[in-house]
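Backbone-to-sequence.
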C-alpha cells in the first residue's frame, strides 16, 4: 500500500515512518505518495531492523493430516458461521498464502482464533494450537487457551504468539510456504468449540 504523507511531513529531515503508520513493506523500500505538490514519487530505504508483517491471513485449505471437526471450512472467514470442534479432535489449516520478501528474519508468529465454547455451561472450551514447518510431520510444542464464552454470548478472539515469539524455533521463509506451514488446533475439553475464524500473521525484520 502507499503511505500518504503531507508536505510538512516530507520536508522534515528526520521523520519517523513507524510513528506515522505501519507501512506494508515491499522489498527494502516503501513508496511515499505525495499530496500533489511534489513532482514524482519518493522512495526511501527502510533502516535495518525495521519490523514488517504479512498482516493477518486466512487459510484456504484444511484437513491435510487431521480432520476431526465438522464443517471445518467455516473457519476460513469471520461470518458467525462456525466450524464445530469435536472433543479431543484435531483439525489442521493451511494455504495462508504468506508473502515474505527474501532475506528477512522471522521474528514472530501470531495465531488468532475467533469463536466460543459452544452451548454447555461448564469449564469452558480448552484448546491447543501447534504449528508445523514441514507439512504436518513435525510440530512446535502447544500453546493453549480457553473460550469461556458460550455461543449465545457472542464470539471472542484469542491470540497466541506475538511479534517476538517464534514458538520455540528458528523459521526459514520456506517453512512458512503453503506446502509446509500448518496451524493445528486441538480441542481437549468436554464442551464443543464453535470456531468462526482462524488467522495467522508472520512478523519479520528487514
Ligand atoms: Ca464471529
Ligand atoms: Ca501433511
Ligand atoms: Ca466462519
Amino acid at each position: 500500500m502507499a503511505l500518504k504523507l503531507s508536505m510538512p511531513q516530507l520536508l522534515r529531515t528526520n521523520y519517523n515512518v513507524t510513528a506515522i503508520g505501519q507501512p506494508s513493506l515491499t522489498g527494502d523500500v516503501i513508496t511515499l505518495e505525495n499530496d500533489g505538490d511534489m513532482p514524482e514519487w519518493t522512495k526511501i530505504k527502510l533502516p535495518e531492523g525495521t519490523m514488517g508483517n504479512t498482516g493477518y491471513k486466512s487459510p484456504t485449505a484444511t484437513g491435510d493430516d487431521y480432520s476431526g471437526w465438522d464443517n471445518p471450512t467455516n473457519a476460513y472467514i469471520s461470518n458467525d458461521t462456525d466450524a464445530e470442534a469435536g472433543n479431543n479432535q484435531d483439525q489442521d489449516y493451511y494455504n495462508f498464502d504468506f508473502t515474505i520478501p527474501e532475506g528477512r528474519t522471522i521474528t514472530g508468529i501470531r495465531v488468532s482464533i475467533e469463536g466460543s465454547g459452544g452451548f454447555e455451561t461448564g469449564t469452558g472450551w480448552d484448546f491447543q494450537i501447534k504449528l508445523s514447518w514441514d507439512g504436518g510431520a513435525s510440530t512446535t510444542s502447544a500453546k493453549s487457551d480457553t473460550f469461556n464464552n458460550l455461543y449465545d454470548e457472542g464470539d471472542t478472539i484469542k491470540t497466541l504468539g506475538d511479534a517476538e515469539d517464534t514458538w520455540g524455533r528458528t523459521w526459514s521463509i520456506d517453512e512458512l510456504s503453503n506446502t509446509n506451514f500448518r496451524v493445528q488446533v486441538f480441542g481437549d475439553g468436554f464442551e464443543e468449540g464453535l470456531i468462526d475464524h482462524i488467522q495467522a500473521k508472520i512478523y519479520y525484520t528487514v
